Fold these 3 entries.
Entry 1:
Amino acid sequence: MQLKSINLLSIGLVLGTMLIDAPQTIAESATSTNQPTPKRALLVLSKAAHTLAIVDPSTLKVVARAPVGADPHEVIASSDGKTAYVSNTGSGRFHELNAIDLVAQKPLPNIDTGALIGPHGLTFVGGKVWFTAEGAKSVGRYDPQTSQFDWILGTGQNRTHMLHVTADGKSVYTTNVDSGTVSILENVLIQPTMPPTGVLPPGAKPRLDWIETVIPVAKGCEGFDVSPDGKELWTAAAGDGSVTIIDPSTKKVTASIDAKIFGANRLKFTPDGKRVVISSLRSGDLLIFDVASRKELKRVNIGHGAAGILIDADGARAFVGCTADDYVAVVDLKSLEVAGHIDAGGKPDGLAWAIQSP
């Protein structure tokens, strides 16, 4: 795909930031046990130890650890479950993604994002790594097959943080924390623009281009998710503790809930789309919402600060990084009680599944 960018991206400012040094390259050797990576593995980032822990979700035991960069925030695995990618944000200054071979349990060469500074939110769609770049106010895409960045789009919003990409790669959603907005980026067919002459030039044809819609929400909206059926986007605000619901088809806010989830950090739908789980870094609570009624079902206190959330494919358990408590809490989503803890390293945060294909 041809490289594209909207005019909201300030190239001069971004290029200037390239002079900032990246964190020191991580060590070449991994620290691990001799246990193989399970075919279905839970990945946990430790901000304190600067490691990626590979956890067996059936035993809740760490089977291996691999070093990552100086400020790891989010992690995602490739579709085949064999490679993990980690964003190093550095308060919007760093320009590094780490890659980890999950089979060999060792780091691969780092990926320099260049002018796309402050990489944070991650997803893996269509064989490519999509990521937000907070310092560049952009979304970028990296192709592991060619080792090239093949697409960039500016949001023009402050602290573009988390993202969701549809399976077809045609729509991208981001939360822009400091602007208090959600961006919807769509790859659509644009009709030729009529020139001042009033006559279209010969050969003028429709073309694919990216269009951004910016939707105001509460400031501090960070964690968000799109329902499994794609009909709703929920996002929670850290400041006023509210939840905003957006209809992606109309790009309109349909509801605002006074959820009182102050310090809201992450938000996830359960796989069946019936419940929403929200974590609070301030209170250490995990809030469970009923989607249909938009009512709170329960608050579960899981520690002193709750961050990253990951839910089992069958919806039975939620794994929550309790950064302030140095453990990952395992919450039974049937009883809505804490069922266990995982010691995956100090200040755990980003979580992801790695499911190896046959």
Entry 2:
Amino acid sequence: MGETFSSCLCVNNETNVDIEGVTLRVEVQTTNSKVLVAELGGRDFKLAVGDSLECIAEHEVKELGPHVMACIVSYHLPSSYRHAVGAGEVSNEANFRKFYKFAVCVASSGLERFDLKMLR
């Protein structure tokens, strides 16, 4: 414990239109806590075609056991790309989440070790 978990995160605009209002929110959750690690972009942030939003998220590890890094991306589609939300509703807002699970344990050498695997 006391080590820093670091992760390089990248949100790419692989569409053929500019995307507005792009937000990346990164949280690390354990059995005892939930910590906001990074929040980038925002209401006025625009991601042009082919551009990316990148950051290095760091979190000081304070406990052993399972951890989950949650990455939440929100954005606004252009009006020509509206999609049906349900029950006749239409929205320009879209979002997705990715979860990465890692365990912090003490190795036989006495040093902390991170095991990372992606949750689907």
Entry 3:
Amino acid sequence: MKRFLLVSATLAGLALMPFRMDAQRTQGGAANSTPTKNYLVSGAAASAPAPRLPDGHPDLSGPWDGCWKTGPDGCYGGGTNNDMVQDLEMKPGELESLLQPWALDLRSKRQEKDEPYVGCMPEGVPRINPYGTRFVESYTAKGLTHIFILHENGDSGAHRQVFMDGRKHPDDNDLFPSWFGHSIGWWDGDTLVVDTIGYNDRFWIDGKGTPHTEQMHTIERYTRPNYGTLLLDFTLDDPGAFTKPLEYRFEFKAMRPDIDLMEFICLEDNEYGIAGGFTPADESGQKEKVKQQGDSKK
């Protein structure tokens, strides 16, 4: 199987990192929604019928590229990544009307270097990153029991677990807030429905610091209309942070089937963020100064 990687020289040394799959920018930084990279399935293959599982449902396995569009703030397409205004192609003033005053104020004060994802914490939902995504459908003698959603192997996005065995969400007393929440799923015809509650409030919805609360409830509806496309109709309802539910459509593009997800281990407080000039939760920069002083004495 072909693999792809990018050797990136950083202040911390050489690190093997997955290749950033951005579509080419158009002049002036305008969003380019036309796939131009040869890692994507294209042409007749992309428009072919979606493959199906032995039980007759669409095979969503992928791998998928959720960052096939490029705008001034970076890549997007399958979810929020950089700025909700760009990634959701919002109209002027739309985000301000959707966020409650306290959430809008907090967003304006947050700095990129303090983002939990920069410190190798999970990205949360509906975040995506520039690396590949895969759905792993787990079958047992009882049929499809779990679906795991992977964002590169071992990336700080970790993986999501979707229970497909008919269980319900736990009662409030038994629900422990977590980065990806508690997800249950079922098929609605050819559409995979994922219902999630129990999120913690630690991750950012986008790179600009858009907040949420533990009241956040999401519903994802995944549909594969053809081989090369995966559509996600996404609903976010958080009465603690937003003035009304958000409903948007995201789109993933199929990557060539000979491309594998690579291992990428991102540990909390490692050198990736520091090498890029980020020191999470260190407003003064003192943490990095102490480290540099220690390195100079070696």
